[in-house]
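Hi V.,

You were right to ask for the full record rather than a summary. Here it is.
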Amino acid sequence: MMKRGGLWSVGIAVLAMISATAWADGLAGLDATLRATGRVGTPAPQAAGGLPATTPDAGAPERARDPRQALVRIEDAAAAQAAAATTTTPTAADEEELQRTDGAVVACRVEVARRRRVPPAKVAAGSVVVRFTIEKSGRVREAEALSALDTDLEVAACAKRVLSQWTFAKRARDALVVERTYRFTRS
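Predicted structure:
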């Protein structure tokens, strides 16, 4: 009986050593290796598999591709989208209401000059083209400065901000996309 108990305890001791070794080494010794290098791991290069290099498009027949055709399709789609967005044109009443924004936008040059503590003549201000949408509710959305010719970028940003905060009269028609050029006087 003593021999059986001795074998039993030797077997348990051997199992304990094996499990302790396996636990310390992690997955086939990777745990210790990764902790030693400080790296997470480096993938080993594998043999190229999958698709052969000679067959384009996973076995699809070879066909001519012209990137110019893709550009034409993209330009056509952009032109169609721009035409759809600007289908409504400003009426005389809309134009009169848009002229009211001129003074607020032109005042941006003075605002930037005050912030910088310089005379307005020292702030470059030529012209700014701004595009925005007037919703049926009269609120402005999607205001963006498209160009700022001979104009300080802070002045253009101010013009965009002023128009974004502007509220027009409610409209009976659909939303109106406006692209307007604001010109600053030379001081």
